[in-house]
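Researcher: Before we compare anything, I want clean individual predictions. No alignment, no superposition, just each chain on its own. First chain goes here; please echo the sequence and then give the structure tokens.
Model: Echoing the first chain and its structure:
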Amino acid sequence: MPLVPAPDMLAAARAGGYALGYFESWDSYSLEAVLAAAEAENAPVIVGFGATMLADEWLDAGGIEFLGASGRALLEGCRIPASFLLNETHTLEQAVRGVAAGFNFVMIDSHRWPVPEARDAVAKLVAAAHPVGVAVEAEFGSLPDYHDGAVDDSHAYMTDPGAAAEFVAATGVDCLAVAVGNVHLLTAYESEIDLERLQAIQAAVDVPLAIHGGTGFPPASVAAAISLGVAKFNVGTRLKRGFLDAVLDRTRSWSGKESVHDLVGSHKQADFLAAGQSAITETVRSLLRLYGSSGRA
């Protein structure tokens, strides 16, 4: 199935009262795991790669093009509606390269830039992306990060509804990620969501809303968030944590007599990376059901 434009998928989610999951991948195993989950649940999905945690040196030495080509190759046989996101690039230039590399959805990690600088860069990205059918997401408001047992909110600020509406109008973005109490990288407990603020943003902003920090987002607030305009949840940290835990558990079972060729990169049952892959698939399936997108393909 060809890639589906992200605005079409987001519009369908809003009309249908469900949300899409963007489940961040970092290699072929993780992306295949997400696709397997979406196909098993018959769910539309946003797949892709995140640039935030990747080294600029690697991205700028052909990494973006490698991610685009490898992701498109795996998506060729996809049987459910999917959009392909290059998430949170470090620079405008990297996002523009993502457009050329085959992503049909791109985003700059500009939420901590000065607002005028972020607005100008996002508007330039929209001008480069829209003519070739590529959608753009932006983030207005800045999430805190969870590190070493504590939340660092020193640079965080909640999304202001009026300012967000001005940002959307000035840039022409297709989707807006908002800060309403959600927290990046939060694995220890659930975040506290300001649903009144989310309602005010929905009233002011006329594009679908996205929630980053989906790992720590409280499941009990998902339905309310969807009813208030959220059409996309981003999940990354939870997937990597589950992948690593499953891989480490698999290595503890080795006897030392196994073939290294079976254990590493074989895509066979003995492949230790396949254990992580299975963990991702099960997690994504549960989240697709939580977001109401199962059976919507």
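Researcher: Okay. Second chain, same rules.
Model: Second chain and its structure:
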Amino acid sequence: MSTADTDTTADARAPRAVIADDERLMREQLRARLAEVWPELQIVGEAKNGLEAVELVNQHHPDLVFLDIRMPGLTGVDAARQIAQMELAEDEALPEVVFITAYDQYAVEAFEQGVCDYVLKPAERERLQLTVSRIQQRLATRGTPEAPSAPPMQQLLHKLAAQVNPGAAPRYLEWIQATVGQAIQMIPVAEVLFFISDEKYTRVQTPTIEALIRKPIKELIDELDPHIFWQIHRSTLVNVKAIAGITRDFRGRQIVSVKGHPEKLEVSRSYTHLFKGM
């Protein structure tokens, strides 16, 4: 793993990126092409596997990350999942994701959904220029009404994971075994309004039951149907069918109201795009 030297004279507002690919020649080619089509972009780190990519993103907090879909140890999809779960400061945002792939069928779906972008191997100047233009637009409109709407990232990552590893697609949970008082109870997942985690437990809330489990949100995300349960905060998953409405508090934060329950759920900045136009 290598990181670029810090240029103290560089524009502090210049966008920053991490490149992750297990092929050294691909990393070098992508870096060279990016220098041609986006000379202002600073490459702050290069990784040869998904684990190194996650470490670099956690270290540098870049504006975007290029992830090879197929890497040893931790795939690009797995790395994207871990990056999506990183803790952020109030003024931070998750990096834009660009997948590097030799397989059109993975990339096109990601591109069409608008959740992220892609680069096909080898990186051609014309296609990379289109990717750069899209990413520049996304970065420029972050946190504004002009920001493009997109479905939850976990929906796309579930689909990509199934395509990369056919036959390994997870079977979604139908029941949750949880502690209710002194008893263990089986709760139908379809009845759950939301999940909220703290440092030790995750609260499972239905219209009539409040229960506790030890499974963290980052594990539940991979086991629940992403079309039904949306992550709206690093510690919160909400059943889309249970959303009664979206409002803003005095600080401008989006707040989710839940059908049949008085609790209000905060939406963190990384997930405000889910409710664009609402």
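Researcher: What stands out in the second chain?
Model: The two ends are 43 Å apart (CA to CA). Additionally, The helical segments are 24-37, 50-60, 76-84, 104-113, 125-140, 153-164, 217-223.
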